[in-house]
Structures are given as structure tokens and as C-alpha cells.
Design brief:
This protein is of the alpha+beta class. It is 47% helix and 11% strand.
């Protein structure tokens, strides 16, 4: 049995090593994506009017969105903050409208803009997630690389998301196998926690791989499971949870999306959606103000988010509350309120905060940066162990062939 698990651990590890190495390093960086992005691209985050005394009062985000659409009829604002942080721009996500002449989407080479809240000037544009290492695109590029490897979509399937979800499943299974292999017997369990720092070389590399994984095994399993939850929520996690708990469906689970070129104009305006959101929030006892609103034309839904200016990322706990409304009738379509719902609902709410470390605030993000670097290290040390053992096996077979001794597979004494 142990030999079988050694083989599984070896090939699971080799199959996932490159992808976990990349995901680990990018995860260590994107724990600070907003801070690094602001440092690299101040034009996207710092309002120019802030440096101009007497420039005027900032406008609400909804008014700015209206002005942007008025100035550029080819685009539709799909996400906007209602208020800016003092001295900051207001970020917006945009998409092309349908050209009434051709019936096709207008061409836009950007999907994100930064707007000065005082002057309504568009200070910067970029295509979020583009394959580019430019200053403007570096952090979004790394962020998307982390969970898709930038694999292209095929036949309408989000290939990269699905692929990394499968890697997450392999990783989760390998975590369980690795724990079993790390404790060959209970009499020598202390060795599985030790590091032979003075010996160096292959012994230290082996300890870094085995003992390094044992010390943080629970955190590694959490990262693996949450990666499956986020990449394969609909395909894997929701069906599993529904066997144990009732799940509250969102309109994104109950509605069939339409093609982008079929998206029409909503009958409900952003301002009306925000007003509906404020009224619904009072009924539900939500105390945070409306901080942002998005429009999903493919599903015909508005989402209204509740947070203070500057906390749109949900920096602690289970994140921010969101309520959903039909974009044509204004009917309330449910929502995601942290800490409310069934056990399964709360489990799903916790997946991104756990994976990103934001559930613990700043200490959690520091921990996740460390874990990302550790995952990369475990991937490298595992491959080094495999290369060394493969070289030893080949040399042994060569000696046996030279001596005309039949080769036999001996027991595997160590991991990989």
C-alpha cells in the first residue's frame, strides 16, 4: 500500500509542480496586489485634482459614470464605486455596447478606467487581465495568471479556470497522501518535524520538502480546497455541499446568460438600483452604506455592494454584503450577506477570504504571502528529490545490465 501511495505522490507532485510553483509565487505577490498596483500606477489611483487647491468638490460615482457614458457612447459602465476615497480616483469597469448599425459590439481596447472625481477626467485606461508585463498591466496579469495560467477559452469553456480547478483537486488529494507518507511509523514521528540544517545537501532538501509540508499541512490543505471551491464551485463544490446542506441560489445560478452582442439596455437605471438597494438594506438591517454597484447584462442583474470608501476589497472577515436586483423589473433577487444563510452558504462565503488570508486582515495576508513562497519551495524540492532518485535508479539499472544481473524493483524507502 505504501509503495502505491509513493508512486501516486510522485506523479501527482510532478504533474502539478510547475503550476503550483507559478501559483505559489504569484499568490505571494498578489496578496498585496492593490498596494503594489497603486505604487506602480499612481495615475490610476491618485486623483490629479487632489494636488490642486480649490479644484472643487468630488462628484458621486453614479454622476461620474453618467458623464463617462455621455462622453463615450460606445461603452457601458458595468461597475462603479459610489464615493471615492479622499484624494483617490474612482475606478470603473466598462464593456462595449452593441453598435446599432452593425449589430455587433463596438471595439474597445480597455475594460477598466480611472476617473478623477472632481474633473471627471479619465486619468488612465487598461485591459484588466491582458497578457502584458507593462507597468499598467503587471499586477492584473499576475492575478489572472494565478488562477487561469492565461490558458485561452475553448468553445465557450473557461479552460484556464477549469484546469487550475483540476490542479487544485490533485493538490488536495496529494496533501492527504503526503501526510500519510510523512509518518512511516509512530516511533520516529519527531523526524517528520525536524530539519537537518547542519547536514545540508540532499538531506536538508528532503527535510525542507517533508517537514516543511508537515508543519503547515493544515494551511496547505485549506489553500488546495479553497482553490477547488473558487475555480470549480458550480461543477464540484456546490454539488458536494448540497448533499450536506441547503444552498441559497443566486441569480447567477438560476438564470441562463445571453451572448454579449444580445445584451440590451436595462430598464432600471443605476440610480434606481442603488435606491432599491438602500431600501432593501434597511429592511435587512445592513448598516454599511452602498459603496458600489455593478451591472451584469448577460444575466440581467444589478448588484449593490455595501462598504465604506476604500474597503471595496473586503479587507477582513467574510467580505462585503451584496444584494441583487432584476435590471428590468427591479425585483429583489437575493444576495450574499456575510455570516447569514445556511452552513453551506457560509462555507462558500469563507472560501475567498480563507484563500487570500483576508479573513484575518493584515496578519492573514502576510501569512498567505509566506505560504505562497512555501508552496513554490515545496514544488522545487519535490522535483529535486525526483531527479536525484531517478538518476540513482538509472545508474543502478546500468550497473545491473553491465554485470548481467536481472533488474528488480526494490521497495521505495523515501518520499518521491
Amino acid at each position: 500500500m505504501r509503495a502505491t501511495f509513493v508512486l501516486l505522490h510522485r506523479w501527482f507532485g510532478l504533474a502539478a509542480a510547475v503550476f503550483l510553483f507559478v501559483a505559489g509565487l504569484t499568490g505571494a505577490v498578489i496578496s498585496w496586489d492593490h498596494e503594489l498596483d497603486a505604487w506602480l500606477n499612481p495615475q490610476l489611483f491618485e486623483a490629479r485634482s487632489a494636488a490642486q487647491p480649490g479644484a472643487g468638490a468630488p462628484m458621486p460615482g453614479l454622476e461620474l459614470a453618467r458623464l463617462v457614458e455621455q462622453a463615450e457612447p460606445r461603452l457601458r459602465v458595468t461597475y462603479v464605486l459610489t464615493q471615492a476615497e479622499p484624494g483617490h480616483t474612482i475606478g470603473m469597469m466598462v464593456e462595449p455596447r452593441v453598435d446599432p448599425v452593425t449589430g455587433k459590439l463596438h471595439t474597445l481596447d480597455y475594460n477598466q478606467i480611472a476617473v478623477d472625481p472632481v474633473t471627471a477626467e479619465i486619468q488612465g485606461r487598461r485591459m484588466w487581465g491582458a497578457i502584458s508585463l507593462s507597468r499598467e498591466n503587471l499586477l492584473p496579469f499576475l492575478y489572472k495568471l494565478h488562477y487561469t495560467m492565461h490558458l485561452p477559452d475553448l468553445g465557450g469553456l473557461e479552460t484556464g479556470i477549469l484546469f487550475m480547478g483540476v490542479i487544485g483537486i490533485v493538490w488536495a488529494l496529494d496533501c492527504l497522501i503526503a501526510l500519510y507518507l510523512s509518518f512511516p511509523n509512530w516511533r520516529s514521528w519527531r523526524k517528520s518535524f525536524a530539519f537537518r540544517w547542519r547536514d545540508g545537501g540532499h538531506k536538508l532538501n528532503f527535510d525542507l520538502h517533508r517537514s516543511g509540508g508537515v508543519w503547515v499541512w493544515g494551511l496547505l490543505l485549506i489553500l488546495a480546497v479553497t482553490s477547488v471551491s473558487m475555480n470549480l464551485e458550480r461543477q464540484v463544490m456546490r454539488p458536494l455541499l448540497q448533499t450536506l446542506s441547503t444552498l441559497t441560489p443566486s441569480p447567477f445560478e438560476t438564470r441562463t446568460p445571453i451572448a454579449p452582442e444580445k445584451v440590451g439596455e436595462p430598464r432600471i437605471s443605476r440610480e434606481q438600483a442603488v435606491a432599491l438597494g438602500q431600501a432593501q438594506a434597511r429592511q435587512m438591517g445592513l448598516t454599511e452604506p452602498v459603496g458600489g454597484v455593478f451591472y451584469s447584462g448577460m444575466f440581467g442583474v444589478y448588484g449593490v455592494g455595501y462598504f465604506q470608501p476604500g474597503n471595496d476589497h473586503g479587507d477582513v472577515g467574510l467580505g462585503n454584503a451584496w444584494l441583487y436586483f432584476d435590471a428590468n423589473s427591479g425585483a429583489y433577487e437575493g444576495g450574499k450577506i456575510p455570516g447569514r444563510g445556511s452552513a453551506g452558504d457560509i462555507f462558500l462565503q469563507a472560501q475567498f477570504p480563507l484563500h487570500s488570508g483576508r479573513i484575518l486582515g493584515l496578519p492573514g495576508r502576510i501569512l498567505i504571502s509566506f505560504m505562497g513562497a512555501l508552496v513554490a519551495m515545496l514544488s522545487v524540492t519535490g522535483v529535486i528529490i525526483w531527479v536525484r532518485k531517478r538518476k540513482a535508479r538509472l545508474q543502478q539499472r546500468k550497473r545491473m545490465a553491465t554485470q548481467k544481473i536481472p533488474a528488480r524493483e526494490g521497495p521505495v524507502a523515501e518520499l518521491r
